[in-house]
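User: Let's play a game. I give you a shape written as tokens, and you guess the letters that built it. Ready? Here's round one.
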């Protein structure tokens, strides 16, 4: 009650084990591979939509908003340099209708080597004036004649108008001239809206598919985990607290779901975005992209340092949370003892210390994130500032289009978001991998009672029980039973008595085959229990325990426990035989009464009678009563004794008891002491021996 509460380990997983865990998780994903593939395709589609948006902005700016042409002189027969440039860039140029002048668009200017561009400017062969291109189909008749005279007619029928002339025209005439640009902007805007609608639909489909798949996978893992737990022997539950098992089926499985939703798909999408951005930036302007990539090694190092610091802070936080959970679970279960001895202040001080440790661990994690997130924002801002400074100069020198610069800024800002996401999801990944390790550790547990290869069930079960030189130990080197041998004949009522720790309950555990003996055999109707089928054994043997567990639900269900063959009439007959009908009739709804958790609305005696009816419901041939009357009042004990008397003629009964008054009418009483049977006989015979039984009787 005052020990260490750090048993919820997080684990430090190595890469080989991580891969083994991922392979095992892949087995649960395999049945849903089509849904996962569809979800990933939708993720790729959404990513493509995200990547297209900045590029659409570039198209709008370069092609419709600031589209411009420049006059360029690249033909001088006596200048071999210009002849070489003409040959290299001739495919980018257009000529006027007379063929006397060359013109180049701002979109094609970026394809000219910056050194050549600098040469052309230095020689005055690239005009400073910008021209706007009027499409061949445009109606220019509404333009004033003096303006039309300034137009440059191109070979394809288009016309170029200087921007200095265009800006002096009335608004109506400008709108008429730029009608094509306006239509282009509207079409891009409509396309942008369509992309948003498609992205919304794809996002819904992606979220639904991945959530559905994640929930189905978690359902399968929970079923497999619960099935594994049910198949374990009691040794398994002796070593693992209930809270830990519940955590495995709930919290740890939910951590896997969170990894699938928030990590697996997000990381895949983020990596795809990063790759796409890198490719697009290189395609837009590889020189500027390489300059921006100078920051990548710094970002990688910072992210690596953050991941290491965050992992340590996260593990410390999870450890303190585990201590809080363990502390609260134990204190809540033991609240009656705490209040009985007025130890509230002491427990409050202990909880305050653990809670403060959790607070400190949380602050450490916050500090790590508080350092990393602003650092990423700083790198993002510095990169954008550099782009505006360096790229803006290139735009002024016509070495870079304005749309390309705007797209660069958009992609760089988008670039840092996946890096932040991947770093944040790293903790979820660590938690999920640790949860996976614990889940599969439980699934790999092999503390099971082995099933026989060829199970046997006697055709006529009579209830003859034989212990043949049985020895057993819960822990190696600490034997509980030593070479026990006895026989209980069909229809006989046998009792086992002895002091606490003598091995009485262990005998019951072996008969129910909760454990297998280390040496010797437990035989029922001539068949070793290890050769019985599990279902056949549970139908032949029933146990009424001292500690009665009542499930929340109908009273009738607590008797039948959903067993096949236990009908409503069998439930009613079992309750009648167990003398439980007296209190059941007093309940407002009788057998349909809804019982709370643990049967809190019933008295101790009523719960014991209900347990007795539960044991009798399938009409067993061997009935075991393990301290079944130790916690009941004399009146309830009398009712149980009457039931035992009525049933003993029809079945073999084995009674384990502290109260010697409950066994004095047994056909045979076996006295156990330190794991051995020391005395056997009837009550009168044992009293006449004046041995262990005699002394126990005097003390009772």
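Assistant: Ready! My guess for every position:
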């Amino acid at each position: 009650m005052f020990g260490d509460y750090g048993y919820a380990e997080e684990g430090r997983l190595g890469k080989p084990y991580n891969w083994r865990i991922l392979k095992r998780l892949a087995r649960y994903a395999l049945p849903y591979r089509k849904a996962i593939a569809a979800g990933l395709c939708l993720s790729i589609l959404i990513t493509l939509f995200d990547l297209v948006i900045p590029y659409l902005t570039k198209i709008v700016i370069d092609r419709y908003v600031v589209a411009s042409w420049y006059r360029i002189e690249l033909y001088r027969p006596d200048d071999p340099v210009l002849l070489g440039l003409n040959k290299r860039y001739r495919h980018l140029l257009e000529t006027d209708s007379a063929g006397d002048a060359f013109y180049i668009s701002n979109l094609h200017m970026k394809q000219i080597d910056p050194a050549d561009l600098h040469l052309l400017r230095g020689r005055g062969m690239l005009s400073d004036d910008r021209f706007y291109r009027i499409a061949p189909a445009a109606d220019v008749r509404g333009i004033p004649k003096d303006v039309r005279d300034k137009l440059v007619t191109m070979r394809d029928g288009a016309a170029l108008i200087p921007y200095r002339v265009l800006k002096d025209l009335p608004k109506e005439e400008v709108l008429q001239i730029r009608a094509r640009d306006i239509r282009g902007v509207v079409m891009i805007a409509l396309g942008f809206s369509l992309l948003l609608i498609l992205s919304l639909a794809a996002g819904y489909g992606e979220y639904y598919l991945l959530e559905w798949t994640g929930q189905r996978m978690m359902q399968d893992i929970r079923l497999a985990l619960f099935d594994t737990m049910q198949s374990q022997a009691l040794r398994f539950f002796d070593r693992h607290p209930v809270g830990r098992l519940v955590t495995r089926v709930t919290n740890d499985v939910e951590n896997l779901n969170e990894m699938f939703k928030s990590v697996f798909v997000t990381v895949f999408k983020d990596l795809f975005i990063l790759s796409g951005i890198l490719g697009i930036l290189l395609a837009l302007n590889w020189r500027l992209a390489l300059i921006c990539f100078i920051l990548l090694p710094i970002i990688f190092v910072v992210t690596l340092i953050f991941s290491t610091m965050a992992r340590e802070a996260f593990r410390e936080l999870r450890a303190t949370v585990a201590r809080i959970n363990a502390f609260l679970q134990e204190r809540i279960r033991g609240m009656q003892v705490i209040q009985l001895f007025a130890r509230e202040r002491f427990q409050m001080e202990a909880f305050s210390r653990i809670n403060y440790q959790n607070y400190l661990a949380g602050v450490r994690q916050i500090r790590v994130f508080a350092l990393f997130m602003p650092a990423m924002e700083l790198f993002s801002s510095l990169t954008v500032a550099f782009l505006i400074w360096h790229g803006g100069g290139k735009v002024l020198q016509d070495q870079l289009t304005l749309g390309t610069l705007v797209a660069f800024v958009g992609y760089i800002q988008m670039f840092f978001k996946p890096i932040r996401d991947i770093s944040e999801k790293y903790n979820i990944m660590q938690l999920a991998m640790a949860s996976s390790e614990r889940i599969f550790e439980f699934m790999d547990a092999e503390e099971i009672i082995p099933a026989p290869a060829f199970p046997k069930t006697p055709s006529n079960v009579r209830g003859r029980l034989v212990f043949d030189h049985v020895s057993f130990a819960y822990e190696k080197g600490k034997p509980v039973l030593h070479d026990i041998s006895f026989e209980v004949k069909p229809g006989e009522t046998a009792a086992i008595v002895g002091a606490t720790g003598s091995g009485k309950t262990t005998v019951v555990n072996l008969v129910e085959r909760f454990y297998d003996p280390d040496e010797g055999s437990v035989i029922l109707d001539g068949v070793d229990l290890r050769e019985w089928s599990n279902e056949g054994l549970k139908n032949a043997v029933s146990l009424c325990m001292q500690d009665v567990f009542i499930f929340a639900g109908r009273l009738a269900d607590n008797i039948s426990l959903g067993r096949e063959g236990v009908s409503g009439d069998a439930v009613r007959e079992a309750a009648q035989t167990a003398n439980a009908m007296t209190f059941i009739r007093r309940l407002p709804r009788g057998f349909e009464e809804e019982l709370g958790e643990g049967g809190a609305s019933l008295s101790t005696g009523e719960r014991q009678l209900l347990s007795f009816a539960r044991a009798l419901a399938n009409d067993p041939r061997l009935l075991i009563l393990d301290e079944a009357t130790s916690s009941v009042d004399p009146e309830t004990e009398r009712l149980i004794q009457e039931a035992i008397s009525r049933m003993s003629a029809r079945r073999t009964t084995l009674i384990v008891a502290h109260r010697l008054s409950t066994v004095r009418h047994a056909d045979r009483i076996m006295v156990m002491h330190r794991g051995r049977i020391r005395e056997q006989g009837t009550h009168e015979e044992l009293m006449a021996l004046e041995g262990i039984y005699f002394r126990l009787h005097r003390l009772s």
